[in-house]
Amino acid sequence: MSEITSKTTRQQLAAIVVDKLRHHKIDAVLVGGSVVSIYTDNKYESNDLDFISPASHKKIVDAMTELGFMANGKDFVHPGTKFTVEFPTGPIGIGDDQPVQPEGKITVDGVDVKLLSPTQSVMDRLISFFVFNDRQCLDQAVWIADKHPINLDQVKAWAKRENQEEKLTVFLARIGRKS
Amino acid sequence: MYKALFGNEVAEHCLLYIVNYGEGHIRGIATTFDLSPGQVKPQLEKLERGGILVSQFAGNTKLFRINPRLAIRKELVALMEKILSVLPEDDIEQYYRERRRPRRTGKAL
Fold first, then answer.
1. pLDDT digits (tens, 9 = 90+) for A120-138
2. CB within 10 Å: which end of chain A, N or C, has fewer?
3. What is the CATH number of the domain that holds B47?
């Protein structure tokens, strides 16, 4: 696996981290803004790579240190890259749905990286629109839907469980669908 | 954009802001649109008197929201959403895309 430099892309860094964690028998799933960056070809740019992992913090620190990362509070920083890595507390949840099984995968330099699927990432963004009225996240959900097929039935059923059908109509209108 | 519909531009700003962000307070709306609180306050109070908005205190801040019991709430929100959807992109970025989701304390911006 290659060295971490300023030229290392987000996807490459995710693969480097996952590969290292895997050698330490640590499972991790990429979630959050970086997934949006990947699915929108950087239309939304996040410099944080958030991984959800069931492993202990100590085990994670050991693995990340081997890659040259240093723990800075909850973030891991590396002198060679602008990207930071964080391990938020799990399990993966999207609204009241948790734990959520990740349905996405990308393969980078032969390493499989588990991540939220485009549909799950849309829901992950929409929950911030539903709960916090965050329109940036609504935009991000729309951008993902512009670039990837989304399982709207799954999104609608989830929004119904979240009691957010009315707000979902704003998203559906933005992507040109009727509720 | 449709100020004639709302009586004046400030009232339109207030309603668009509140629908966009779910709620709003006098200083927040005034700061966003570079207005004085004295311009915003009477419009919010007028809309509250008219039953369009309701308000409640959160600490010392009076928060205004669309009246959940308003008979035309759904239609009003849909209208405001439609107006938001046709605003110029520059206006959207400047006035209606403030980050509202939480950010962990100490997290670098």
1. 999 999 999 999 999 999 9
2. C
3. 1.10.10.10
Longest Cα–Cα distance in chain B: 45
| Sequence-ordered list of residues with C-beta below 8 angstroms from that of A132, at least 6 positions apart, any chain | B100, B101, B102
| Class in CATH terms, A10-115 | alpha beta
Per-residue burial over B16-37, b = 16 or more CB atoms within 10 Å of its CB, e = otherwise: bbbbbbbbbbbebbbebbebee
Check if B97 contacts A (Cβ < 8 Å). yes
Domain boundaries, chain A: 10-115, 118-174
pLDDT tens-digit profile of A48-75? 999 999 998 899 999 999 999 999 877 8
For residue B21, give the chain A residue with the closest CA. A133
CA distance linking residue B65 with residue B52, whole number of Å: 9
Q: What is the DSSP letter of A44?
A: S
Interface size, chain A vs chain B, as Cβ–Cβ contacts under 8 Å: 37
Task: Count structural domains, chain B.
Answer: 1
B 70-89 residues with CB below 8 A of A?
74, 77-78, 81, 85
DSSP 8-state code for residue A7? T
